Amino acid sequence: MMGPAHSLSGAAAWLGVGAAAAAFDKPMPWPVLLVGALICAGAALAPDLDHKSATISRAFGPVSRGLCEVVDKLSYAVYKATRSSADPRRSGGHRTLTHTWLWAVLIGAGASAAAVTGGRWAVLAILFVHLVLAVEGLLWRAARMSSDVLVWLLGATSAWILAGVLDKPGNGADWFFTGPGQEYLWLGLPIVLGALVHDIGDALTVSGCPVLWPIPVGRKRWYPIGPPKGMRFRAGSWVELKVLMPAFMVLGGVGGASALGFF
User: Fold this and answer.
1) 184: CB partners within 8 A, 6+ apart
2) CA distance 36 to 28
3) Which residues constitute the domain of residue 233?
4) What total number of domains does the chain contain?
5) Structure confidence by residue, pLDDT tens digits, 167-220
6) I need a labelling partner for 74 at 20 to 30 A (CA). Which of 16, 38, 98, 210 fits?
7) Nearest 5°: CA angle at 192, between 118 and 17?
8) What SS3 state is found at 217?
9) What is the pTM of this model?
């Protein structure tokens, strides 16, 4: 799928988690619902860091472009080192390492560890990166027409304000993980979810997605999971634009309203 659809699906997924949390008597304070949805929307773009034309590779200028090249080479090296004889040969690393459940878990766990051990500046950095990505994905037309600096300033300002809101008692710094020193441990959850939602979205397209790696499926270690061929679509097609994106908006709205107790 394309960037806007990925971001919408990420936001809708977190709002759905908020609805489920409310149903199981673990309701999210509204700042957690809002911040989590924005982080998940941004994290749903992150697996495409292995693709030089993806939104995330352009989001932070030379830094993200350089990181994209490193991640692409790393992903390709891992693919070559671990492929079975049944896996096809490739010339690049797109839709390999960063499109797996293992990558999603590791990135989310790393973000949680950084948030807990790194203090406020680590939390601000996590928020900044994902809020910039959320703007690039959810407001992609406006972001394309604006300068990168304006988008970065919006991300930095929003991160500072939202971190201040979360820090207030009862606003969710210790949501879900309530033990001493576990503030902001939950920040890794929307990051994991966003990456997995991205992978599921890509699995619906014609190429599929090796989300289960390193678990082998049949003779392939990098098996491209997906529905039957007739149910798949091309990225950017009318199915994505006219069916899936409106569905994500509706589901996100219903999930958010339910999470906030409106029904």
Assistant:
1) 112, 115, 116, 123, 166, 173
2) 10
3) 3-259
4) 1
5) 999 899 999 888 888 999 999 999 999 999 999 999 999 889 999 999 999 899
6) 38
7) 110
8) strand
9) 0.94
